[in-house]
């Protein structure tokens, strides 16, 4: 499958990495020659130096035969023009990154239609939504809805008092009241798709698939239930921080710290129920004065990764019970997150990339990828006449890098799969897999 990506920023780079791992034919258009060269040296993709607004550059990238063109630069206008030109030149689908509220809203509807974009994404909006899900599910450090929200993947650190500790996954699977599945386990920095003989240990970071209505029960069984959120501190009043504060203030006490005086004043006028403080998020005296030690959740969402990590590290040291979230744009700092006791790290690249992957794959209803691993969660529709139609799960014999997790029946009900679960055409399966195994998954469930 041929894919053209315009822009090698954090979203474009991540997309190229994911699609390259699936052995797609990926071409990245980037104006900055240094960035283009670095991308080409690190990833198995082609690069074209130039602007996505130039037809000659798009032709050089082979856009006329592209299954998709993704315009994901920081410039909304460039992305829109690239979409319109790509459609004219023959691209089947286009994705446009839009960050301006006016262009994303009703006033921009006619322009979006004129530019022929099939999907519009906004990394800041998507990141804010991920943060809000984390706050709503206290105790998890990752929350990914699947199957239209009926199922959910929870990222959780197994607590020392969990009743799962010391038990094998096969043993856990025999307990009828525990209707969930361990899809991935990270231990000592290595992530695996586990099998039944794996024993759960305290401190394991696990990704668990369960029914959305059972997530609190799962968190309790894993000794990972967080306390009720009453007070939140949002560090950074940019697009992400402002959106999070605006939503959370409806149900919690919110303090927002913003370094720019003019923006802090504007936010104070706009978000009248939010306590807006003008100051630097790395000023520990300021954080202490604003009672970080009694805050339930601290969210650092500025555009400066180092500041986000340092502020969350200080909050974690001052208040061991606080849940800390750092937004990262550069993954080089990811190893410091756990080291400094920070509970969760989010990146604008993953949420938006998940939406693009979902659009590209067509038959995939949901996609969830993770910052620290190439394991991902996918939802596939079982097609009539495929090897999976009518088969028992135990008879599919998929490779070890694929683990079937749940099936969504045609009546909308969901079921965590076991070996004797039978699958039928028209149903959806939710599974954990590495990108290199997705071709086999399509063979099993595609006609």
Tell me the layout of helices and strands.
Elements: E1 2-6, H1 10-21, E2 25-30, H2 33-42, E3 46-49, H3 55-60, E4 68-71, H4 76-89, E5 93-97, H5 101-104, H6 109-114, E6 119-121, H7 123-136, E7 142-146, E8 151-157, H8 169-173, E9 180-187, E10 190-192, E11 205-211, H9 215-221, E12 231-235, H10 239-248, E13 253-258, H11 261-270, E14 275-278, H12 284-289, E15 297-300, H13 305-318, E16 323-327, H14 334-339, E17 344-346, H15 348-361, E18 364-370, E19 373-381, E20 402-408, E21 414-416, E22 428-433, H16 438-445
Parallel strand pairs: 1-2, 1-4, 2-3, 4-5, 5-6, 12-13, 12-15, 13-14, 15-16, 16-17
Antiparallel strand pairs: 7-8, 8-11, 9-10, 9-11, 18-19, 19-22, 20-21, 20-22
Largest sheet: 6 strands, parallel
**Strands of the biggest beta sheet: in what spatial order?**
3-2-1-4-5-6
Give the distance, in angstroms, between the N- and C-terminal Cα atoms.
18 Å
Judging from the principal axes of the Cα atoms, what is the shape?
Answer: globular
Spans of at least 5 consecutive residues with low confidence: none
Structural class: alpha/beta
Q: Could you say what the CATH topology of the largest domain is called?
A: Rossmann fold
The CATH architecture assignment of the largest domain turns out to be 3-Layer(aba) Sandwich
CATH class of the largest domain, please? Alpha Beta
